[in-house]
Amino acid sequence: MYIYGASGHGRVIIDLIESYEKIHGIFDDNPEKKEILGYPVLGAIPDHFIFNSSLFIAIGDNLTRSRLAQKLSSRVSFTNIIHDSAIFSKRAYLGSGCVVMEGAIIKVNCILGDQVIVNTGASIDHDCLIGDYVHIAPQATLCGGIQIGEGSLIGANATILPGVQIGKWCTVGAGSIVHQDVPDGHKWIGNKIFAQPVPMVVEK
Questions:
Q1: Mind telling me the catalytic residues?
Q2: Which among 96, 99, 142, 175 is least buried, having the fewest CB atoms inside 10 angstroms?
Q3: CATH topology of domain 81-184
Q4: Which residues fall in the annotated binding site for acetyl-CoA?
């Protein structure tokens, strides 16, 4: 496996997989990144580079991850990482390039898109629909029948109540309790909703 990203999320991914997965190389555009957890950082991915294994994009920022995935999708396949301690229903679906971390729970009939991060101890209950490039932060709880739009961030320890729909490129603040729908490009902090700029994303 190759890894793209040599910062905090990259360290987490290396720590998750190195006991069972051979790491062929680690890339990062930042020229100051030379080493991560004892592995050399090879720099940016050369245009002529030929991958002989799958790639995992270890970037926590949703917009950056989406742009990289779209740029590289024609050159390499993306792998999934599911920690042994996670509970993942056999009747749930996971796209490509996703990570499900320690203690996370994904229940029956959930559908997760591509490049989704389900962080430590997060819980996604039955019949949830999670769009591409979403990040569910540690200990967040999604009750049943929730929809999360592309690129949205659900903050640590946030709770989304049953049936709520979160739009595209939204932010739910840490510890928030969301009891009503959130339109595209808005953020929910505590018990209030605010508008925020919607990032421009290249269409697939």
A1: 126
A2: 175
A3: UDP N-Acetylglucosamine Acyltransferase; domain 1 (2.160.10)
A4: 135
